[in-house]
């Protein structure tokens, strides 16, 4: 069967139509004519695979990564970068129109990533045995199939250097992959890097690592912080386990970001593209230029990076974060930068926001939620509040659209700014500025 690809889906797949239903075809590009195989129905849509590309798009390029076809994490790497930007803006526009009836003309031009390769500052890689040696790789999307990956062109080059050094040392010491029955062995490797320094976390079973192994790892020049995380939960959503063991070096990884001194624990969230994160936060702060607020609240504040960028625009900034480690981290960062009008509370975003709203006036709320977006409790709190302005930073057009559809009962969408943080993938960030209707 031959199908013409009409557009691109939210996950970077090509979309054709068969029997008036969409057919999602991984790896296909708009305007291509493809022969398909393995057509499977899922009620309102189909999925299929490419058998042959009959007519190729002029925008198709050879992927920069030799393993792109194996790990399949970079769903747009076969598309020229300038066309990736257009596709992402189109996906955002179509999604916001579908869910919130927002006209595409209201979306600004997408802010490009000046470094579309080698930008990622962290990896979280599963470990398996291959030909008797421990190796790192990826699980293919939607499966438990492990594919070893020898090199990743999305990672900061230092991550790749340290990843190879760590694997060499682990193999030298005879470390094996995790055994679910014995609850021992190495499960995942996490590396985070900023400005030439790395924080490494080994996720394992109930293993006691030898001092010789620890010493060899700390001898790696770039590794300045070394941790172990014990995770024996069979189907764990979180890569990290609840038990964290500090092995050596510095407990926090320190770096400069937007002129601020930062320090971060292994479990604390930080945007995966350092340079574009700075662009993102500066762009959000620019929406406040010339304004002065009494109280700004940042929900889902993490280590409080956005709060630092906004603190000069308010008498006080209050961050809300549910992870205690991140709150402690955020307080330490504010103190490190001698910023005294920013504080952080640990708790559920909706509950704490309700409490703060009753306690005093909130002029501006900044939210940067996970991919699941704002839950109904948070939406309900916002609709009942008297908060005048919201800056919503989103990483998922679908949940953003659904949230905006509800928020438009009380708020008017003023600005939508898309930003490319995760080049080669279909992921897109967006800043939305909303003001309460009179």
TrEMBL record:
It holds the Pfam family TRAM. S-adenosyl-L-methionine binds at residues 271, 300, 321, 368. The active site is at residue 395. PANTHER family: RNA M5U METHYLTRANSFERASE, TRNA (URACIL(54)-C(5))-METHYLTRANSFERASE. The keyword Ribosomal protein does not apply. One of its GO terms (molecular function) is methyltransferase activity. Belongs to the class I-like SAM-binding methyltransferase superfamily. RNA M5U methyltransferase family. CDD domains: AdoMet_MTases (cd02440). Residues 1-52 form the TRAM domain. Gene3D superfamilies: 2.40.50.1070, Nucleic acid-binding proteins, Vaccinia Virus protein VP39. This is 23S rRNA (Uracil(1939)-C(5))-methyltransferase RlmD. Its EC number is 2.1.1.190. GO terms for biological process: methylation. Keywords: Methyltransferase, S-adenosyl-L-methionine, Transferase. PROSITE patterns: SAM_MT_RNA_M5U, TRAM, TRMA_1. The keyword Transport does not apply. It is an enzyme of class 2 (transferase).
């Amino acid at each position: 069967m031959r199908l013409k690809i009409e557009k691109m889906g939210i996950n970077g797949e090509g979309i054709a139509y068969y029997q008036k239903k969409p057919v999602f075809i991984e790896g296909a590009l708009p305007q291509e004519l493809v022969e398909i195989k393995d057509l499977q129905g899922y009620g309102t849509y189909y999925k299929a695979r490419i058998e042959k590309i009959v007519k190729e798009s002029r925008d198709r390029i050879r992927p920069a990564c030799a393993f792109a076809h194996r790990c399949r994490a970079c769903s747009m790497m076969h598309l020229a970068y300038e066309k990736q930007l257009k596709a992402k803006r189109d996906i955002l526009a179509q999604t916001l129109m579908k869910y919130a009836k927002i006209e595409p003309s209201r979306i600004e031009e997408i802010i490009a990533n000046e470094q579309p390769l080698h930008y990622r500052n962290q990896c979280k890689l599963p470990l398996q045995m291959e030909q008797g040696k421990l190796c790192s790789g990826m699980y293919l999307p939607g499966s438990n199939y492990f594919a070893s990956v020898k090199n990743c062109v999305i990672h900061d080059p230092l991550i790749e250097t340290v990843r190879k050094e760590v694997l060499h040392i682990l193999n030298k010491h005879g470390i094996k992959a995790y055994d679910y029955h014995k609850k021992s062995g190495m499960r995942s490797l996490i590396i985070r890097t900023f400005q030439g320094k790395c924080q490494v976390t080994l996720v394992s079973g109930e293993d006691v690592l030898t001092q010789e192994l620890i010493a060899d790892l700390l001898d790696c020049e770039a590794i300045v912080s070394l941790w172990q995380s014990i995770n024996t939960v069979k189907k764990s959503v979180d890569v990290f386990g609840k038990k964290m063991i500090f092995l050596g070096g510095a407990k926090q990884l320190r770096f400069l970001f937007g002129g601020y001194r930062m320090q971060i624990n292994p479990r604390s969230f930080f945007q995966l593209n350092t340079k574009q994160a700075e662009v993102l936060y500066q762009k959000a702060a620019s929406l406040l230029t010339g304004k002065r607020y009494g109280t700004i609240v940042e929900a889902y504040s993490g280590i409080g990076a956005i709060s630092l960028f906004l603190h000069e625009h308010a008498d006080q900034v209050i961050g809300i974060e549910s992870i205690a480690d991140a709150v402690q981290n955020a307080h330490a960062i504010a103190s490190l930068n001698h910023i005294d009008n920013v504080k952080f509370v640990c708790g559920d975003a909706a509950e704490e926001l309700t409490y703060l709203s009753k306690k005093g006036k909130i002029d501006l709320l900044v939210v940067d939620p996970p991919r699941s977006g704002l839950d109904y409790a948070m939406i309900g709190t916002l609709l009942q509040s008297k908060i005048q302005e919201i800056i919503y930073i989103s990483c998922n057009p679908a949940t953003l659209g659904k949230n905006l559809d509800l928020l438009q009962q009380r708020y008017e969408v003023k600005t939508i700014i898309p930003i490319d943080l995760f080049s080669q993938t279909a992921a897109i960030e967006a800043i939305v500025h909303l003001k309460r209707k009179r």
